[in-house]
Amino acid sequence: MSQQTQLSELNERSREVFRRVVESYLQTGEPVGSRTLTRDMSERVSAATIRNVMQDLEYLGLLDSPHVSAGRLPTQLGLRLFVDGMMEVDAVDPVDRARIEQTIGNDNPDTGTLLDRVSTALSSITHGASLVLMPKHEAPVRHIDFVTLGPDRALVVLVFADGHVENRVFTPPLGQTPSSMREAANFLNAIAEGRTLSELRGHIAAEITARRQQLDGLAAQLVESGLALWDTADNDPRLIVRGRANLLDSQEADIDRVRELFDDLERKRDIAQFLELAEQGEGVRIFIGSENKLFSLSGSSLVVSPYMNADRKIVGAVGVIGPTRLNYGRIVPIVDYTAQLVGRVLSGRKG
């Protein structure tokens, strides 16, 4: 049964009972009893009538009772139904808006510093844990070089056309020589100029195959080792996580599961999946509990929105993790506004 169908099949009284249970839960985190609802309903009804309605909502899977005699709580399905069909989204509070805008500052910080500030501010404002996915650098490559640091260590230096430089220490193939490193660098520079790193990766396998005769075995391994490093590390956008203590301090947090979530994030095991969440479309997306593998163990919710560059291409995302009883009506517009602001600022930069 679709969510819209479920909503349409609820009569006005059932919808009001359901809405008030969810809103009370999001505010207090506590089960809601029938006697409490009798004081808030728009029509005068008995506690027995409300109990019957709540039983029907429980049968539909929208509410649950933690104890036989306790009130009701919304289920994950109930929260999803409320968020998609009944939630009223607030405007961004002027104070929150000002705090977000202040993170930009007047000192024109580099992109990394700027997004770190944004992540810290977002965590502070929402009292949750913030995630910011930094954009990868996609300027055309000007030059690539390999530098020997020792028998088992080498440095890859990548110079972009806009002057940006990346370098990383890696373990080269056994038996590499200065001549094989020069040969590998010459090979890469011959095909890299004018291409972004993403475009270069798309060409490198075919070029290695087509020109295998021009490289000895060690040089080919060195090429593959150097590019594999960027493919799995620095070429992936960087994930900034701030405010994990806010989630650990949540009253309903399962501490061990939340720590496992953040350990996974900090090890970047699921960074590709987080990027996929952001790239599935414009606008804010909400993932509640087990709806997403990344947060299923912690029982947390994620509110995430992508941001775009000047070409309207999604290049990163900002998000907030919190308990399932997040104040979605407040958090959603904050995340949305932050993503739009980041996109405008980054689109105004040349590099």
TrEMBL record:
Belongs to the HrcA family. The keyword Repressor applies. This is Heat-inducible transcription repressor HrcA. Residues 114-332 form the Heat-inducible transcription repressor HrcA C-terminal domain. Negative regulator of class I heat shock genes (grpE-dnaK-dnaJ and groELS operons). Prevents heat-shock induction of these operons. NCBIfam families: hrcA (TIGR00331). SUPFAM superfamilies: GAF domain-like, Winged helix' DNA-binding domain. InterPro entries: GAF-like_dom_sf, HrcA, HrcA_C, WH-like_DNA-bd_sf, WH_DNA-bd_sf, WHTH_transcript_rep_HrcA_IDD.
